[in-house]
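User: Quick sanity check before I run a bigger batch. Here is a single chain. Can you write out its predicted 3D structure?
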Amino acid sequence: MTTAVLVHGGWHSASCWDLVRAELTSDGIRSVAPQLPMTSTLDVDAAVVRGTLDSLDDDAVVVAHSWGGSPVTLGASGARNVRHLIYLAAFMIDAGRPAPIDMRELPPMGIVQIGPEVAVVNPAFAFDAFYHDCDPRVAADCIAQLRPFACVGWDRVETSVAPAWSLYPTTYVVCAQDHGIKPDDQRAMAAKATDAVELDTSHSPFLSRPRQVADLIAERVRLYSST
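Assistant: Done. Predicted structure follows.
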């Protein structure tokens, strides 16, 4: 059996995957969604990913969204049971590098308010940035569950491990209407993947197109469950 491991992005909670998980359950596919703490450096969140993988008694297809790509790139590296990775509008960069840009170095912006210790998403800007094609009620529920992100989470973590995406077959999913991560930046990362898919969605297709996202995952889970 192969389990889908669904890793959320920055500021989000594991519950953002609930709609996709319901679709996978209806397909007879097991899934788990670890809750990343986002209270310390990247290696702490990566350890949660690795602990989740190590706790499984079967193979895994790992799905990472947005910033969740970085803890997956570090934490899934060398895991014995990973069969495939899916980066969903996710950071597919060097292991130990939290993000392409340290947001602490950027000028002040409306969407993210950065304090001395934590950064929080401004709810007034969240819908347009992340959820503009989602049902407003679904988006509002997700916005209400956004959590602080520790600023030290942007500190680079020194590591000698290979990025997970260089070790396993990897699919990159570009979100072509993304307002959070530029689609062209996603396409540049996708060039390093085994294959790439484009969805005509916002940054959060797990809310706007959960069936479509579940189909992408299910296709890969079934590939390995049948071998």
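The chain has one domain: 2-225.

User: Great, the batch can go ahead then.
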